[in-house]
Design goal:
The chain has helices spanning 23-30, 40-55, 61-75, 111-119, 171-188; strands at 81-87, 91-99, 105-107, 123-125, 143-151, 154-163. The protein has 189 residues and is α+β, with helices and mostly antiparallel strands.
C-alpha cells in the first residue's frame, strides 16, 4: 500500500524539525522579559532594556505606546492605571492604556496630567485628593506619577501612572520613568 504525500501547506510532525505549536506559544516566549525586582534601580534598568527591545524597530507610535503601557502595567507593582495621553493641538487626548476607562480629553493646566503638560515637569503626587484640580477618573486612585514626553523641544504627550496606594511613587520611580520616556520619545516623534 502506497502512502499519500501531504498536500502543500500541510505540515506533519514527521516532516517538521520543530514541534508544532500554536503561534501564540512562540509569541509568548518572544516577549517574556526577565525583569528583576530586587531593587528599583534593577527594575527600571530591566524595564528600559525591555522597552528598547519592544520599540526599537516599530515605527508606529500608537503600537509603541500600547506595548509600553502593557509592559509597565505588567511589571510595576501596585498600579491601577498605566498609560498615555497624547498632545494633539495643545490638548491631551487619551492614548493606549491599561486600566479602567479614562477621561478622553484633558486641557493643559488641568489636573495632574495637565500640570505636567503645561510645565513640562514630572508631577509626583503622594495624595491626589490634596492636588488642586485633580481629575478623578478612577475613585480608587490615591497617588499619581505623570512624566512629560518631550522630543527635540516638542511635547508629544505624557505617561500617566496611578496607584490605589497613597505615597506609592517616589523620586526613584520618577527618575526611572523619565529614563524610560527618554528612550521612547524619539520613537513616538
Amino acid at each position: 500500500m502506497r502512502r499519500k504525500r501531504p498536500r502543500c501547506g500541510r505540515v506533519t510532525r514527521r516532516h517538521s524539525p520543530l514541534p508544532i505549536l500554536p503561534a501564540s506559544a512562540y509569541m509568548a516566549s518572544m516577549y517574556d522579559f526577565a525583569i528583576a525586582a530586587d531593587s528599583k534601580t534593577e527594575l527600571y534598568r530591566d524595564l528600559a532594556a525591555a522597552l528598547d527591545s519592544l520599540t526599537a524597530d516599530e515605527p508606529d507610535p500608537i503600537a509603541n505606546m500600547a506595548n509600553v503601557s502593557a509592559l509597565i502595567g505588567q511589571y510595576l507593582p501596585d498600579l491601577n492605571w498605566a498609560g498615555f495621553y497624547r498632545n494633539l493641538d495643545d490638548e491631551l487626548v487619551l492614548g493606549p492604556f491599561q486600566g479602567k476607562a479614562a477621561c478622553i480629553r484633558i486641557p493643559f493646566g488641568k489636573g495632574v496630567c495637565g500640570a505636567a503638560a503645561a510645565t513640562r515637569e514630572t508631577q509626583l503626587v503622594e495624595d491626589v485628593h490634596a492636588f488642586p484640580g485633580h481629575i478623578a477618573c478612577d475613585a480608587a486612585s490615591r497617588s499619581e506619577l505623570v512624566v512629560p514626553i518631550v522630543h527635540q523641544g516638542e511635547l508629544l504627550g505624557v505617561l500617566d501612572l496611578d496607584s490605589p496606594l497613597p505615597g506609592r511613587f517616589d523620586s526613584g520611580d520618577a527618575a526611572g520613568c523619565e529614563a524610560l520616556m527618554r528612550i521612547l520619545a524619539p520613537r513616538l516623534a
